[in-house]
């Protein structure tokens, strides 16, 4: 489980690094047709030498993360409060999330496309949910949950809650400072991104219009439509790259 977790953190770092780099390119060349989401990142890998092998390795490593989170849900996580019910529930939710990510990566590697872009998936899922009895309330509740999750990620990053999960005693002073910067900056950017996705989903629920829902790619592009122009997207993109760096540091120093 320890090795599975570390491989999973490294895989997460690769995905966020590529999404951040693609988002930077989108900020200055929005018409290039690149997708700044998981599908875009996987397509970027597929174009490289031995891309198929790399994709399978990435999928297996992400599956390792899902298994580790599942083990936390079943047996409890490390730390004094790792056996509390809410901690186990969080781990179970994360296991499901990373299981879905692993499936989509391996489906992409197998040539099935991995379910398409995040934007199309968001619109399709929202449309199906809105057609259900009480669908507007269901989408609204899910959207609020995503907004709250984004705020939770942001606050935890600012308060440096990640310290308790890292082996800081094994770090030099400079490494610890670097990990602090990456963890705070990266966590804030990730929280803002999650929160924005949730806000667009909430708008879709209020207006009863699935086209208002946005995936990661469309949400990142929406940052360029603010008064800051492309520079807000640049900041978020650099933050996602920073979170990739934090993920790589977690692969080395995370307590499992």
Note down, in words, how this protein is organized:
Pfam families: DUF1206. The protein is an all-alpha fold and 256 residues long. It has one domain (2-253). It has helices at 2-28, 38-46, 51-75, 85-109, 118-130, 135-158, 173-207, 216-222, 230-253.
Mean pLDDT: 89
Taking Cα atoms only, what radius of gyration do you get, to the nearest Å? 18 Å
Largest sheet: none
How many separate structural domains? 1
Q: Based on helices, strands and strand pairing, what is the structural class?
A: mainly alpha
Strand content: under 5%
Q: Helical residue percent?
A: over 70%
Total helical segments: 9
Poorly predicted sequence stretches spanning 5 or more consecutive residues = none
- Work out the number of β strands: 0
Run of helices and strands: HHHHHHHHH
Form type: globular
Calculate the terminal CA-CA distance, rounded to whole Å: 8 Å
Keywords: Membrane, Transmembrane, Transmembrane helix
Domain DUF1206: 7-75, 92-160, 185-254
Organism: Streptomyces chilikensis
Protein name: DUF1206 domain-containing protein
Secondary-structure blueprint:
Elements: H1 2-28, H2 38-46, H3 51-75, H4 85-109, H5 118-130, H6 135-158, H7 173-207, H8 216-222, H9 230-253
Helix pairs in contact: 1-2, 1-3, 1-9, 3-4, 5-6, 6-7, 7-9
Domain DUF1206: 7-75, 92-160, 185-254
Organism: Streptomyces chilikensis
Transmembrane segments: 9-28, 48-68, 89-110, 137-158, 179-208, 228-249
Task: Jot down its keywords.
single chain, 256 residues, mainly alpha, 0% strand
């Amino acid at each position: 489980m320890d090795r599975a977790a570390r491989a999973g953190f490294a895989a997460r770092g690769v995905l966020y690094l590529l999404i951040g780099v693609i988002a930077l390119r989108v900020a200055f060349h929005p018409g290039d047709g690149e997708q700044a989401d998981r599908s875009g990142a996987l397509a970027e890998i597929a174009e490289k030498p031995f891309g198929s092998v790399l994709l399978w390795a990435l999928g297996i490593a992400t599956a390792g993360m899902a298994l580790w989170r599942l083990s936390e849900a079943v047996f409890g996580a490390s730390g004094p409060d790792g056996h509390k019910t809410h901690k186990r529930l969080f781990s179970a939710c994360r296991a499901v999330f990373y299981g879905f990510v692993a499936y989509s990566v391996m489906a992409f590697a197998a040539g099935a496309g991995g379910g398409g872009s995040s934007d199309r998936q968001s619109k399709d899922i929202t449309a199906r949910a809105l057609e259900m009895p009480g669908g507007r309330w269901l989408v609204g509740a899910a959207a609020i949950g995503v907004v709250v999750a984004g705020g939770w990620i942001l606050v935890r990053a600012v308060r440096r809650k990640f310290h308790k999960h890292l082996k800081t005693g094994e770090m030099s002073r400079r490494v610890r400072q670097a990990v602090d910067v990456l963890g705070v900056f990266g966590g804030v950017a990730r929280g803002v991104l999650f929160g924005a996705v949730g806000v667009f989903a909430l708008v879709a629920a209020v207006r009863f219009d699935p086209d208002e829902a946005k995936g990661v790619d469309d949400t990142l592009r929406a940052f360029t439509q603010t008064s800051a122009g492309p520079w807000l997207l640049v900041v978020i993109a650099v933050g996602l790259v920073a979170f990739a760096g934090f993920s790589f540091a977690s692969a080395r120093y995370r307590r499992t």
